[in-house]
Amino acid sequence: MKGFDKIRLYGAGGHSQIIQAVSNQNGVTVTAVFDDNTSGSHPAFKNIISGARKNPDKFPHTGDPFIIAVGDNSHRVEISKFLKSEFATVIHKSAIIDPNVSIGKGTVIYAGAAVQPNTIIGEHVIINTLASVDHDNIIEDFVHVSPNATLCGLVHVGEGTHIGAGAVIIPKIKIGKWCTIGAGAVIIRDVPDYSVVVGNPGKVIKTKSLL
Ligand SMILES: CC(=O)SCCNC(=O)CCNC(=O)[C@H](O)C(C)(C)COP(=O)(O)OP(=O)(O)OC[C@H]1O[C@@H](n2cnc3c(N)ncnc32)[C@H](O)[C@@H]1OP(=O)(O)O
Predict the structure, then answer these.
(1) Residue ranges of the domains in the chain?
(2) Long-range contacts, 82-91 (Cβ 8 Å, 24+)
(3) Of the CATH numbers 3.30.70.20, 3.40.50.20, 2.30.30.60, 3.40.50.150, which one belongs to the domain with range 6-82?
(4) Known catalytic residue at 75
(5) pTM (2 decimals)?
(6) How far, in Å, from the CA of 206 to the mean position of ligand 1?
(7) Where is the PglD N-terminal domain (predicted)?
(8) For the chain (length 211 residues), average pLDDT per consecutive 10?
(9) Cβ 70 vs Cβ 10: under 8 Å
């Protein structure tokens, strides 16, 4: 995996603040922070380049690689379509990543997370603080695995799905694309695309309209 010593962030909210902190701890310099507007920005950021997508022709696509530093999965998709830039990966130095793990560009992995052998993680994925992703998982692009979530072995998570904080997914489960798994849910059966699932055992409470 290619290492970077400088990155740029697209997004200046709470999630971006964590990426800046992880970068600092890893000795990586954040050289610029962009956002569409500053209304939802975190006080940690002093110099935000706003209105970034209003002038696409003038946007500095070339330069230090980007992380799309936005927690909302569909928002990351939109921004990835705009940016014609190289993407970095940011992995906290305390994360335990088996060497036999594949990690896509733009993905971030936070403090204390563990990822076990033969797992494949896609692009622009968030593996949040203390998440446990065990062996032979497939995590597709734009997924967010929230803090303390546990994915047992051979789990497959479809594109854009959000696994809530502390959720547990038992082995061999397939979760569809653009699902939301509620905080603390225990998933013991496969989950169809676009489902919102809560509880133990997890039950579908609604199906989202197609994106
Ligand atoms: C660092 C970070 O912050 S990372 C971000 C981590 N974020 C999370 O983990 C949030 C995950 N989101 C949730 O758990 C949400 O509650 C959701 C998405 C599952 C549901 O949200 P909404 O669609 O707004 O549903 P709503 O709040 O209306 O609840 C619908 C019903 O499900 C129940 N419910 C909602 N969430 C849960 C949950 N996690 N577990 C059990 N029941 C739940 C509600 O009590 C309600 O039940 P009722 O109809 O009997 O009153």
Answers:
(1) 6-82, 90-207
(2) 82/53, 82/56, 83/10, 85/8, 85/61, 87/123, 87/124, 88/4, 88/7, 89/1, 90/7, 90/19, 90/22, 90/23, 90/26, 90/28, 91/26
(3) 3.40.50.20
(4) no
(5) 0.96
(6) 11
(7) 6-81
(8) 83 94 93 87 84 84 96 96 95 97 98 98 98 98 98 98 98 98 98 98 93 54
(9) yes
Of the residues 135, 144, 156, 162, only one is catalytic, namely 135
Pairing of strands 168-169, 6-10: unpaired
Q: Which of 161, 205, 206, 207 to mutate to test the pocket of ligand 1 (most atoms within 8 A of CB)?
A: 205
Write the DSSP symbol of residue 121: E
Q: Give me the residue label for tokens 């979530």.
A: 149
Per the listing, tokens 């971006």 go with 16
- How many angstroms does the Cα of residue 182 sit away from the middle of ligand 1? 5
Residues in the chain: 211
